[in-house]
Amino acid sequence: MSAVRVLAAAAAVLLAALLQVSVLSQVAWHGVVPNLVLLVVVAAGLVRGASFAMVLGLAAGLLLDLAPPADHVAGRWALALVLVGLVAGQVNREARGSAGAVVATVAVCSLLGTTVFALTGALLGDPITSVGSVLGVVGLALLLDVVLTPLVLPPLMAMFRRLEPARGLAWQR
User: CA 143, CA 55: separation in Å to the nearest integer?
Assistant: First the structure.
């Protein structure tokens, strides 16, 4: 793995986390913000595959878990984003290019990530007001992530594609 790819992925995660925690938190809708970090992990999974996206998801999740104003047990976002990276990386190579498959992948990954985060909170004793409120938060998070997909994923996917090494044998280049 090249240092440039690692630095670019780290910069994308850091920028997404900063925007999510500082800017988007100011315009939260019922306390829910779009998960830009999740979108970075999905883009990495769609372009680079599951292994890269899972490692990126672990690092990005730990960053979210430790970034202020985190008020939950560390590791919950890390687990959720590792699973998101796995799912996004498993999308069929042929389907990855279509806009419908990208939006569907974001929807599934948003649902998965937010649900895993909420369920681990319930298992670890976070106070949950009701199942209905959790479902409302998960649905709203899914909607916000899907709405931002056309704005966020194309440039991220282009960046990850550009950093992908040329495929094929050396004598074919």
Answer: 26
Q: Is the pTM of this model over 0.70?
A: yes
**Residue the block writes with tokens 């913000």:** 33
User: At 36, which amino acid appears?
Assistant: L
N- to C-terminal Cα separation, the chain: 20
Domain ranges of the chain: 2-163
CA 8 to chain centre: 15
One-letter amino acid for residue 37 of the chain: V
Per-residue tokens: 88:
């996004």
**Residue spans of the chain under pLDDT 70:** 1, 70-71, 94-96, 127-133, 164-173
Q: What top-level class would CATH report for the domain 2-163? A: mainly alpha
Distances (CA, A) of 20 to 52, 64, 123, 167, 168: 22, 9, 25, 35, 38
Query: Which tokens in the block code for residue 160?
Result: 């990850």
Collapsing DSSP states into helix, strand and coil, what is residue 117?
Answer: helix
pLDDT tens, residue by residue, 12-30: 999 999 998 888 777 777 7
Task: Tell me the two tokens of residue 141.
Answer: 């998070």
